[in-house]
Amino acid sequence: MNGKHIFAAYLQDQIGNDLTWEQIEASIEKPKQIQHGDLAFPCFQLAKTFKKSPNEIAKTIAQGNISGEFEKIEAVGSYVNVFLNKKAEAQSLLTQILKEKDAYANHRFGHGKTILLDLSSPNIAKPFSMGHLRSTVIGSSIAAISEKCGYQTVKINYIGDWGTQFGKLISAYLKWGEENKVRNNPIEELTKLYVRFHEEAEKDPSLNDEGRMWFKKLEDHDPKAKELWIWFKEVSLEAFQKIYELLDVQFDSYNGEAFFNDKMDASLKALQEMNLLELSEGAQVVRVGDDLPPCLIKKTDGATLYATRDITAALYRKNTYDFDEAFYVVGHEQSLHFEQVKRVLRKLGHDWADNMHHVPFGLILQNGKKMSTRKGKTVLLETVILEAVKLAEQNIRSKNPELHEIATVARQVGVGAVIFHDLKNEKGNDVEFSLEMMLKFEGDTGPYVQYTAARIQTLLNRGNFTGSVPLEFSIGSESWEILSVLSEFPEVVELAFHRKEPSIISKYVLKLSHKFNHYYAHVKILDSKETPERLALCAAVQIVLKEGLRLLGVQTPNKM
């Protein structure tokens, strides 16, 4: 609806230039109860300027001449409340949605700009666990939301293919590994070896020194170490790709940590030339402020660290992609590390580091505790997804055995259930792993929203909907509530982008689904003289639900 813009214009005429258009529009609210109007403007901020009480100001503003876009305008306490011309607004909004389809709520403020996203980033030679789900789906959704706002995105899967853990894994394989077992079931066997190494190291701490020694050999291009590392990496990426195909997630780059091995010397040289490196207990550090510990750049044995690599990666990415902003979708436990890296880049004279943003998220917990591969306490994401798909198929076969392509629909529903369960939670919160809640097909779940969209498709087919918007409307309270929610979608998309928060989209599609299902239960849609207008409303709801789910990475079946 354009009612908000018209109301803002009316308010500007009454207020004058004491508030800008942007300030007025940002202050306009939606009353909690629909009987109080469609839009409201609080007058508290004008009291000082006009030297009157907010109540008096509201009464004065409400006395202006209103256009045909409004049914009425009134002062309620300190608020100016406006009631929109429902028939005009309904026709305008439905015409817009049915014309623009999935382009409805697109924005252009990101046009010509690039956002780089660092997301997913699992470690090779380890299983893709539930713990990796959050970065993958949160980052992928933020990318889709950014693109809807006009940005070009670059999605980088910064694979963890370097570090001391590979020295430990090489050491474990040489001690206890069997080639045939690893070739037949690589991820499971490599994980067993990794877990065993840490169990044995608790009894014999010298094993940790051996692990560090093998990693140093890997850094020094030892042939045996390099051969095993390449093998571990290849089998891991193969296994990861199956997960990404299930989630329907794509990346623009898989350049992992090892990609920057031959590029770190330039970073170290730049730090040396600017006299930023200091010795601290044999290690080389950069002091980044009194409020943070120094950033460790090189250990006493000369091995590089995450910070060295991340600084180098940021320089390479800026040079390669010239991003306007970069989003690092990484767990909140990395906040200190990320701030250190940004400060080092600023000390190197790179002001664009201010446009690098850490997008932290909480953990997926199991019985209130963090999942840990090294302790063998993890739940495999592939197992969860496949179980979700299996359950979805069982439910569909029991409820709709005649449905064609049950396997395809079950995959859409099962995978969607897993993704939506994560993204309906605010990203900063920890999420307790619960297979039962994740696979629930009623209530505030992905399958509930998918089923709402599929139900609408059935109505449109049965009603032979042509896609046109009738010239006349009879707007009831139920349909007006739906139209009001539909009108919010552009603002919801923009807010989700600025807060980097996919759960805003999740909560919105749930709200829209609840409103529609209430409407469906109380209004006769087919075989009524109002059927054409009601089907137009249904079609608009389906368009927005499907687009909202798409922004979350969830597909929408036409039938369930």
UniProtKB/TrEMBL annotation:
<feature type="short sequence motif" description="'HIGH' region">
    <location>
        <begin position="122"/>
        <end position="132"/>
    </location>
</feature>
<keyword id="KW-0963">Cytoplasm</keyword>
<comment type="similarity">
    <text>Belongs to the class-I aminoacyl-tRNA synthetase family.</text>
</comment>
<dbReference type="InterPro" id="IPR014729">
    <property type="entry name" value="Rossmann-like_a/b/a_fold"/>
</dbReference>
<dbReference type="InterPro" id="IPR008909">
    <property type="entry name" value="DALR_anticod-bd"/>
</dbReference>
<comment type="subunit">
    <text>Monomer.</text>
</comment>
<dbReference type="InterPro" id="IPR035684">
    <property type="entry name" value="ArgRS_core"/>
</dbReference>
<dbReference type="InterPro" id="IPR009080">
    <property type="entry name" value="tRNAsynth_Ia_anticodon-bd"/>
</dbReference>
<keyword id="KW-0547">Nucleotide-binding</keyword>
<dbReference type="Pfam" id="PF05746">
    <property type="entry name" value="DALR_1"/>
</dbReference>
<dbReference type="Pfam" id="PF03485">
    <property type="entry name" value="Arg_tRNA_synt_N"/>
</dbReference>
<feature type="domain" description="DALR anticodon binding">
    <location>
        <begin position="449"/>
        <end position="560"/>
    </location>
</feature>
<keyword id="KW-0030">Aminoacyl-tRNA synthetase</keyword>
<dbReference type="Pfam" id="PF00750">
    <property type="entry name" value="tRNA-synt_1d"/>
</dbReference>
<protein>
    <recommendedName>
        <fullName>Arginine--tRNA ligase</fullName>
        <ecNumber>6.1.1.19</ecNumber>
    </recommendedName>
</protein>
<keyword id="KW-0436">Ligase</keyword>
<keyword id="KW-0067">ATP-binding</keyword>
<dbReference type="InterPro" id="IPR005148">
    <property type="entry name" value="Arg-tRNA-synth_N"/>
</dbReference>
<keyword id="KW-0648">Protein biosynthesis</keyword>
<dbReference type="InterPro" id="IPR036695">
    <property type="entry name" value="Arg-tRNA-synth_N_sf"/>
</dbReference>
<dbReference type="InterPro" id="IPR001278">
    <property type="entry name" value="Arg-tRNA-ligase"/>
</dbReference>
<dbReference type="GO" id="GO:0004814">
    <property type="term" value="F:arginine-tRNA ligase activity"/>
</dbReference>
<feature type="domain" description="Arginyl tRNA synthetase N-terminal">
    <location>
        <begin position="1"/>
        <end position="84"/>
    </location>
</feature>
